[in-house]
Write a structure and sequence with these properties.
By secondary structure, the protein is an all-beta fold. The protein has 2 domains: about 55 residues, no CATH class; about 55 residues, no CATH class. Helices cover about 0% and strands about 40% of the residues. Strands 1, 2, 3, 4, 5, 6, 7, 8 and 9 form a 9-stranded antiparallel beta sheet that branches. The chain is globular and about 35 Å long.
């Protein structure tokens, strides 16, 4: 079973849309600095949302260490992952995507599965 080991987290104010149903999804900052859901593999990720904040509430984001994430499709241990249009993680091999981290320990068989990722946010896949 997947687990989260607490390493580094920070609180951000959420934006005008609710993130209550977006726990363990990839997030970024809006141009005004508020937290919003990542919506593309080329977004500038902040990390992974750890709680279920309402509009204007504090969103707790993990940006270093390991974390649970929602898969957007099939992912195997060792795959590099990025964000899809719904803030879920998908495997990537393209150099145009930003990398959120590496899937570890368990595979995702389908969208919606929860897996564990070792975070190492970078600008490009290998």
């Amino acid at each position: 079973m997947s687990q989260s080991i607490r390493d580094f987290e920070r609180s951000f104010t959420t934006g005008s849309s609710t993130l209550i149903a977006k726990q363990y999804r990839v997030v970024k900052q809006d141009t005004n600095g508020t937290l919003i859901l990542a919506s593309a593999s080329t977004d500038k990720f902040v990390g992974v949302l750890q709680n279920k904040p309402a509009v204007g509430a504090a969103g707790l984001v993990r940006f270093i260490g390991t974390t649970k994430v929602v898969a957007g499709g099939t992912i195997n241990p060792g795959d590099l992952v990025t964000a899809d249009s719904n803030g879920a993680v998908v495997a990537t091999t393209t150099t145009k995507d930003r990398v959120l981290g590496t899937a570890i320990l368990s595979a995702a068989a389908a969208a919606g599965d929860i897996i564990e990722v070792l975070l190492h946010i970078s600008y490009l896949a290998a």
